[in-house]
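Researcher: Here's the sequence for the chain we discussed earlier.
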Amino acid sequence: MLAVPATVALAVLALPLIAALFHYGRFTAEDAWMTRQALAAYSVGLVGIIMVKILAPGFYARQNIVTPVKIGILTLVATQALNLALVGPLKHAGLALAISLGACLNAALLYRGLRRDGAYKPVPGWPVFLLKVGASVGFMAIVLFTTMGEANWWLAAGWERKIPAVTGLVILGVAVYAGCLLAFGFRPRDFSRRAAG
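Model: Thanks. This is the structure I predict for it:
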């Protein structure tokens, strides 16, 4: 519920964030665009990296260290192959995207291993839950994309205008996403320890 909207928001707001934080002095507009490409590519792997942190302990808790190591080695080989395939057409963004796709592959293989061993069995309701989160994230992305303005403004405005603007976009994204979740029936009490128990 946090990683997916953060990933999408990071990709959508990549240029506003970079322009507000770094586009000053010798950091040119070309530098901002190049950094935006890398940041968008890295954002793809954010969910994968977080899922690895969640899934890997499922093996360690069962005294199974070998499987995550094997998956890690396979992921490393796949990432290097993706580097070779993507760095040509995408250049520096290809390296970032290869790392992101490798993280997603790592998470997918860990998930498959837990399912195969019977260590994890999804409970009913996950498809509907994911659909609601996906719809909320999608609406948030549309709102952010349509309200963030033109790239030229972000590259031309001063810091005293960009910082409040990007802060407002972040607050808007949080408000839209939270509002959609509430509309779909999510309530804060659903995530309390008592509700989880």
